[in-house]
Design goal:
single chain, 113 residues, alpha+beta, three-stranded mixed β-sheet, 5 helices, 3 strands, 56% helix, rod-shaped
Length: 113
């Protein structure tokens, strides 16, 4: 097998080396953010909007809707212990049923933390 000269080796390397041009547009970043937002919206199954529409005005700001688990358990994060108690009372008084009817996925239970 004949040995190639260093010039031939270098020429061969240059021919096969491909430099990718840097991405200068923000299109891929915007698309990634859109997908992330869509995934988060799907994870809560529209319950953030339902919470904003159905919860009493005094409870809306004291609770934040978390993710809906695969088992159908929704987590609401309360700002403090008194807000947790008020949210639990509202849920037992028919709020959970209202959220369940507004949910696009199966909602088994609501947990307040």
């Amino acid at each position: 097998m004949p040995r190639r000269s260093p010039t031939q080796e270098l020429s061969s390397l240059r021919k096969h080396r491909v430099w990718s041009k840097p991405e200068l547009s923000i299109g891929p970043l915007v698309e990634a953010m859109r997908k992330n937002l869509a995934a988060r919206a799907n994870a809560s199954a529209g319950l953030e909007d339902a919470w904003a529409a159905l919860a009493p005005p005094e409870l809306r700001d004291s609770g934040v809707v978390g993710a809906l688990s695969a088992g159908g358990i929704l987590t609401i994060k309360a700002s403090n212990s008194s807000a947790k108690f008020e949210i639990e009372v509202w849920l037992r008084g028919g709020g959970e049923a209202a959220l369940r009817s507004a949910c696009t996925r199966t909602l088994q239970r609501v947990r307040v933390k």
